[in-house]
Amino acid sequence: MSHDTETITIVDLRQPGWPDGAHVLVIPRLHVSQVDALSDEVAAGLMKAVVRAAYVVRAEFNPAGISVWQSNGEAAGQEVQHVHMHVLTRRRGDGLLRVYPSAPAKPSRQERAALADRLRASL
User: Fold this and answer.
1) Residues 40-64, mean pLDDT to the nearest whole number
2) pLDDT at 13
3) Mean per-residue pLDDT of the chain
4) Would you please indicate which residues are annotated as catalytic (active-site) residues?
5) Which DSSP string do the residues of 49-112 spell out, in sequence order?
6) How many CB atoms are closer than 10 A to CB 17?
7) Closest Cα partner for 88 from 38, 3, 18?
8) How many Cβ atoms sit within 10 Å of the Cβ of residue 16?
9) Looking at CB atoms within 10 Å, which of 2, 5, 35, 88 has the fewest?
10) What mean pLDDT is predicted for residues 1-30?
11) Which residues touch 48 (CB under 8 Å, ≥6 apart)?
């Protein structure tokens, strides 16, 4: 589909919205298996290409929505051990990518603040 010096964008084999939508993958040329191992430069180039791909997909299909995601590890559904971003057109009620199968926990404001402090300390 397209490429630049840092990324390549291809049409995925699986097209759940076919023929009225698109599912594309944006892949960094540098092999990295987990998103948190990307350098700032590669991550910035990857996201720039994702924005470009989403723009093109929206212009071509004018979908009701677009999902952008990246999975890390088997538990998250990572099938290929190379970072890649998905850009997928969406229709209302399409049943794809259900994030929460049931209502998730809603910790108190104080608990969320403690979590934020814990994460911030690791930056």
Assistant:
1) 97
2) 94
3) 94
4) 84
5) HHHHHHHHHHHHH--SEEEEE---SGGGT--SSS--EEEEEE-TT-----S-SSPPP---HHHH
6) 16
7) 18
8) 16
9) 5
10) 92
11) none
